Fold:
Amino acid sequence: MTSATAPVPVLAAEQVSKVYSGAVPVHALREVSLVVDPGEMLAIIGSSGSGKSTLMNILGCLDRPTSGRYLLDGVETSGLSKNELAELRNRKIGFVFQGFNLLPRTSALENVELPLLYDRRVSVKEARERALEALARVGLEDRAGHEPSQLSGGQQQRVAVARALVNRPKLLLADEPTGNLDTATSMNVLALFQELNDAGATIVLVTHEPDIARCAKRVIEISDGRIRRDELVKDRLRAAEMAREAAALAEVAS
Amino acid sequence: MKRLVLLLTALRSLLKNRLRTLLTMLGIIIGVAAVIVMVAIGRGAQSRIEREIASMGKNLLTIFSGAAQFGGVSRGGGSLSTLTLKDVDLLREQATLLSGVSPSVRVSSQAVVPGVNWQTTVFGVSPEYFEIRGWKLAQGEAFTERDVRSRSRSAVLGKTVVTNLFGDASPIGAEIRVGKVPLVVVGVLEEKGQSGFGNDQDDVILAPISTVMSRLSGGTNVQQIYVSVAEGKDSTAATEEIRGILRSSHRLGETEADDFNIRSQAEISAAAATTTQTFTLLLAAIASVSLLVGGIGIMNIMLVSVTERTREIGIRLAVGAKSRDVLVQFLIEAIVVSTLGGLLGVALGLALAEVLPKLAPFQTQVQPATVLMALGFAVAVGVFFGFSPARRAAEMDPIEALRYE
Structure:
């Protein structure tokens, strides 16, 4: 890390702890340290209550650690105000939320351009162009005018991915991105992630499904607020093939 | 966030909930329309009263017999008869700021024609009285100075008296008996209607002062002297002039108080104007309450809307909206609702102010200032009541908001 040629890590958590104060303080994270370099595809797994959501919120600059340091793309986040964090999210992070979280009764295009509307450097015209570009990248350029209710689950999630890409983020952060999807569609979305990762995107995805985690290059497992396991995936799944198999199976079954 | 985009976002989200938006607006629409109509009615009444007061005579000063004092207790104006015809003559000779002087005695009496009688008030006056009080003749003629000198038995009737004694027939030349005195009708006054104080100004018979004093009232004192201030002359200066003349006429010493009162029309007008202004203000206040209720309606709906759209707010915050962006977005929604409602309310108010006088005995008068004020108030209500829901939205925690079901 100290050598001049080494790239700046996309994210670096140092001894990050999170305590929820209350009658009984809850230690959601205990001195977690984690470095993710550009081009990685990391899966964070863990059961519910393990602290993986808390970790994701901190990595996504939605929350601040109680102690420890967190650097996103070399920027120290602990001293930042609410609004400065919002700006950081806006410029460096692309979110794919659990359950799509698209604005209802709003066209795919408008959903995708949403992050750019909060970026003062981007003109309205440029926002529109980049939104169309992002939709094209997920293969939905012909659905730009459709509202979420007119799209399938997989299409909705791809719109959400396009929205996460539109600000050209340093980090793509996905929380249970396949939570509400069937296997074939899940694999299609993951294939898209792998394709983006192959093209150089840094991706962190949070999941509880081992199959999904096996599509990543590296997996960390959280339990009781600590990292229990941190290893590279040996037999990485190619989601595109899995999707084809699942589709073929579904055809046979029907 | 870009301003235009914010405005468009707000407009679009209002359009998505058309019925709700309309219902929210309704409170503001009714409030603004109510303010405009109420104030228009108040102003209508005010200008009507002002017109009526003006019809009582231009530049009118009224001199009353003085307040008598018995053991320090004032018995009120007119309780002592101190004014005489001599005072009237002196005023006519000496005053330089007056254009007309008329004495007046008042007698309440029964007017009788064969088969009908009518209780009315007879005023003994001089011919200048018509000019001073702004009375015009509808039929016939007024009596003249000669009639006064000869104590002629001529009378001019008010419209109400004519209607009650003669119905639709022309009374000119007819004989009526007032008390025991027969009078010949020489003229009919134009209608003036009710005075601002509610009495019928047309229920009156005017006769020469000499005739009334010698045959009906008796005595040599007059109750009131009406004078009109000459065009372009100051009524305060005229009042002082009259005081000087009357004080020397009544031989009052330096230390003695006036034994008469002079009241100017301007004072009465001012008093009446104050009354109607209070009335207008009261109506406006009542109407403003409905505007306030409309504002609470906005707040209510905005709170519901903010709660309902918690996820949307969460998404916006997560992808980089700052608190201010969310605040402004919801504030704009509230302002758009209240402004649009205000404009529709203005339209409704103007329409009602136009139609109402045709359905009910009101007069309305719309002033541009009122319209602007009502509109401004509506917008202010939107900002005021929209602020707290918008703030609630802006202060949401993105994590909680995204998790909201």
Remarks:
- The helical segments of chain A are 52-59, 82-92, 108-117, 124-137, 153-165, 183-198, 210-213, 239-253.
- The longest strand of chain A covers residues 26-36.
